[in-house]
Structure formats: structure tokens, C-alpha cells
Automatic annotation (TrEMBL):
Family: Belongs to the peptidase M16 family.
Classification via InterPro entries: Metalloenz_LuxS/M16, Pept_M16_N, Pept_M16_Zn_BS, Peptidase_M16, Peptidase_M16_C, Peptidase_M16_M
Keyword Protease annotated: yes
Domain Peptidase M16 middle/third: 300-581
Any GO BP: peptide catabolic process
Protein name per UniProt: 2994_t:CDS:1
GO terms for MF: metal ion binding; metalloendopeptidase activity
One term under GO cellular component: mitochondrion
The keyword DNA-binding belongs to this UniProt entry's keyword annotation: no
Signal peptide start-end: none
Sequence ranges assigned to domain Peptidase M16 C-terminal in this UniProt record: 168-268, 586-712
Organism name: Diversispora eburnea
One Pfam short name: Peptidase_M16_C
Species classification: Eukaryota, Fungi, Fungi incertae sedis, Mucoromycota, Glomeromycotina
Amino acid sequence: MAATEDFINKLSPNFLISPDKTYATLNVPIEKSENDDREYRLIKLANELEILLIHDPNTDKSSAAMDVKIGQIHDPPNLQGLSHFCEHLLFMGSEKYPKDNEYTELVMNIWKDPWTDKELNAVDSDDNWKKYQLERSLSNQNHPFSQFGIGNIESLKEIPLKAGLDVREELIKHHKKYYSANLMKLVVLGREPLDQLNNWVVEQFSGVKNKSIPNLISIKPVKNAHNLEITFPFPDQTPLYETKPSRYISHLIGHEGEGSILSLLKKKVLIQFTKVLISQCTKFRLILPTKVKTIASIDFRFLEKGSPSGYTSGLSAYMQYPYPRELILSTPHLIRKYDAKLITEGLNFLNWNTCILTLSSKLLSGFNKKEKWFDTEYKFEPINPKFLQELQDLTLNPELKITGPNEFIPSNFEVKKIENVKPLERPFLIKDTKLSRLWYKKDDRFWVPKVEAHFLLNTPLANVTPLHSVMTGLYIDLVIDAFSDFAYDAGMAGLTYYLYDQGNGIGVSVTGYNDKAILFLDKIIQKMKNFIIGPERFLKIKEELKRTLQNRLLDSPYELAMCNTSYIINQKIWSFQERLDVLDEINYQDVQEFYPKLFKQMFFEGLVHGNIDKLEAINMIEIIENILESKELSSSQLIDNRSLLLKEGKYAYFKEVKDEKEINSAIDYYIQIGDIMDKNLRAKLSLIGQIADEPCYNQLRTQEQLDRVTGSMGFRIIIQSEKDTIYLENRIEEFFNKLQ
């Protein structure tokens, strides 16, 4: 009873207590998007566990997500990674592992997990992980941020053993101490009525115990890349949820349009891209880029549904923040007030006296230190005094300026809704000529002012040889690079585009608010047709492509195994090495002369879906036809990329990895099933995939994949391990025998 009285006393006035005093309900409306047809209810159980209930009558999947505000900052110094280890063990129930030695087997198998020891060597080759852990290791050693949160055999076995600790006992103590109802946030989504969901969670979660828990350097990278990272400590922004000053600051710094920092540095060939981002632990933050007030409001107004599991997982994490409960859905998205003073105060934290400069490049040498956990080689060097003095005497560069009005911000949000219409199951053909084919489907389900338009500019010339393939790729990368100023404004206004190598041509996609989508597509195609290549930017993009291809040769074994399988079963895919072999001989004049030939003969194919009518959809593909002025391809030139049909039998292909330090092996066990157009077979394969999913993970600590390539489909299992490939192959075949 005392616990119930204490629970009642802690409640805010916005909560209404249930008659039996087992829970309380938020009795003010929860602010939600105009586009959101779901019903919400927020309750708090007597044990202080907070739960958000979501009724979605149209969902075909239910989902529940629990967030517990416990992590690596709660790890004991001599058991670093304990919280992470505990998280994994939570999924392994004693009823599922009844044998005497199964717990020991479980502990050994856990290290195969990609986050822990058996796969830690794969993590070792990830430069981002290495930089992140180095930043942590070099931070204040009295702050838990400095700890090794992932954990490995050394931190969770060898060190505690030397200290006389029983890891199992410490694990149980850790769970008993910290897994408390008042630190938990639960989100449950289902098609059941709110009252039914309410009854279920009260019954199932009221018994959870409430324990009332009070709530930067030069680096030698593995891969060939050149990076400069500037880290400024920044105050916690959670209390400033109404104004979000850091969003304005990061918008200004991270802007990519004309007059921006990135635009200026790219003109000087000093930079390829910038990132302004947040790295957070409790009460310590850096900066995150996002949209400013107007665009944030538009995006929230027309917020679309995501997957149930992603939605509940994200909301359970947001619920850990001290936002007003009725604003829990809207606060992550909206900026409610503008406060210039707070923005100025935030800018003052970007101080050269308190920042960390981190350089990462293969060109650096003289490393004299190693980080404890990943053996990352690094060194400290004083910053050049001349450079520091220059920082004190900065003057405004005339090329830097505040961006002007954004022409892509939508103003027409009219939704062309048709009442009482049965949604079509598939798009239909509205244009079919020797030059183009267009598929179209009017949005008849979501009713938002958005469109998705995907086009393939089909030309066999793009991939005839490795040389053609590389020149096509360089052209695409150069256009994307040159278009970044313009595309950034469109992106800020909710319009995105993708330009990509499709193998048998160039893919162009435009997605977002339909109001300015046609205008945006027109500008993209104009840029593609009339592009002038700058020699300096060409060298930079070529250098970047070379590093990318060289780094791909150092991918983890499982990634390389999958790539090599693709080379075998597809008719025409050029390997990383084949493309590297021809790259050096290409100059900017070669690409300038080559790319117009791509447009000489083409076949255009498109799919348009969304808040757009048939004539507007046809207008989009005609914009492409009219600007590029291509001639028709003959029918013999329209043969798509094909997959090879394997003869019955078993084939083995072995390849050594190029990274001499790589100790892992990998196997891609691929079974070709048949024709992808066979609906019956496709359905059976999907069913087999669902049946095999859980036992595959339990037995092999990996997941199966259904594989679909042009013309055929298959079933594959990919494993990476320190074990040799023969052993892994035998394990997979043993799994198949047990599955039958």
C-alpha cells in the first residue's frame, strides 16, 4: 500500500488514477500528426513502468518494444562490457537451454555474435569503431564515457578472473540491481482496441519490480581514407526541446548549398563531404543536423507510417527523455520557438581551446601509442602555433553567405483523394513506345502529397567492358558532386534524388513532396545533359573511387564471399580488381567525350506512384525524352543483364582474402532454386525462409537470406568465423539435414 501511495504522490496532475489504483492514464490528448490515424494511450503502472499503447486498425503486424535506461556507463571498471553481455543473455531463457552444460555452450557461442569476441576482429577492421573507441579511451578516465562498452574476452573474462570475480555472479547482481521498472519504457502496437491492450500490459507487467533507481589526435586507419574530425563538447540539449538551437547551428555548418562551407572547400579541392552529427551519452552531447522550423512542421504534418517494430522501438527510446508526455510523438520532430540568444550561446561552445582535432590517413606516420582495446595506432602532436594564430585572426570569406530562399519548399499540399475507392494491387502501363515505357499508380492508400518516380535510362554502352563501367560510374559520381549545392536545398525541402549505376544503364529517382518534384526532375536531367567536367574535381572524384575500390578488396570475408558469388551467377558484373586495373588510364577528357555517347541511343522505363495524375506522370518521362533527345535502341540491344542457370550439382569456389591480418574465414552457401517469375515456387521459397530463420540463427549464429537476381532466385546462408571454411560447410549441411 505504501508503494501505491508513493506512486500516487509522484504523479503529475495530468494523470487519472484507475479505480483499482494499479495504473494511471494520461488524461490530456497526445499531439500527433494530421496524417496519423492511430489511437494512443499513455499509462503508468503502480511500479512506475511507463507504457504507450497504440491501436492501429490497419496494421498487419503487432509490435512491442521495451527500452531500459541502463548501459555501459553502469559497467564496473573491472567488468567493461557487462551491460552489453547482459543484454544478449536476456534473450536466452533457462527453459530453452535445459541441459547441464548448455549455459557454458551458450557463453562460448555468444562470442560469435558480431558485437563480441569471435567477431571482434571484424570490428577491428572498422575505422569508425576504432576512432570512436579511441575518443572514448582518451576522454576523462573518471567519466564512464571512457569505458569499453562492447566488451570482449579480456574485459569480461581475463580481467575479472585476475580480480577474483565470478562473472556469472556479477552478471546476476548487475541485472538485479539495475533492471528496474522505473527505468523501463514500453510501447505496444496492435490492431486490438486500446482497452484490450491496456488490460494485457497491466496484467503482464505489473509484477516487474521497482527498485527506485535514481535516474579527441592522429590515427592509423585500416582502410585507405583521409579524414579530419573536429569534436566540440556541447551541452545537453534535452531541456531545450522547444527551441532546439543546435539544429539551427548544425544546419548552418552542415549546409551544402551555394555559399556554404562545404561549397567553398570543394571549390578549393580541399574536401569531399562534411558531416555534423551527435554523439551522446547521459548529460553529454555533440551536434545533430536537421531541418529548420518550417520544413520540420511540414514533415510532421505529413509523417508517414513506418514498420511497427521500428516505430515502437524508436518511441520507447524517446520516452526516456523528459518531454511532456502529451508531446512525446511530436517533440522529436517539431521546433516550437525561435530563440536567437540560445543559438548564440551554442555557437560560443564551438571554441578552438576546447576542441579535439582527429586526423586519419594512411599518409601519416610516426605513431607511438596504441589504444588498449583495438590496438589502434595513434600519436599526439601539438597544433602548429602559426595555425592557432591564424584561427585568432579570422576574417569573413566573401564567398560564404547565408543561403537565399529555397525554391523547392512546397506550398501546395492538396491531396487528390478519391472517396470509397478500392486500392489497386499493382501499377498499370500508361505509355508504351519504342522509346519509352511508363508504369503508373495513383496513391489510393496513404493520401499524402508525395510522389515516388523511378526511371531507368537503359543503354548497353554503360557496361560493355570494365572501362565503360568505370567511366559511367565516374560520370555519375561527378554529376552528384556538382549537383550537391542544388540538391541540398531540395533535400531540406523534403525532395530527394538518387542517381546510380544500374548495370545496364543509369537510374534516376525523385521522391518527396509532389508540388516541386517535376521542377526538380527537369533540373536534374538538364544537369546530366549539359555537364562540363572540371579537371580538379575529376582528379578528386577519381582518387576517391580508387580508394573505395582498394578498400573493397579489404572488406570483411563474408562481404567478399557474397561479391564473388555474384560474379559467378551473373552474366556480366565486373570485379573490384577489374575496375581498378582500368581506372588509372582514364582522364577527364575521356569521360567528357564518353558520357554524351550514352545518351545517343536509349530506352527509358519508369514507374510513377503517388499524389500525381496520369498526365503529370507522362510529363515526367517526356521531360527526360525531350532533354536527352535519344534515338531508339533496337530490340537486340534491349537484352537485360541475365543470371546463369547452374547445372545440377555442387560447385566450390575458393578465394584468399588480401588482408594479411584477417583471421576470419567466410562461406556463402548458395542454392539456386529456379525462375523468379514462377509465383508458386517463389511463395514456397518464402515459406521455407520463414521456417528456417530461427533454427538457422540458433544453430549457426547467422541468418539465412532469400536471394533474387535477374531471372533466378535462390536460398543462401552466409557465415563468418575463425573456423575454416570446410568446417563451416559441414555445419551448414548438418543444419539442412536437421531441418528436413
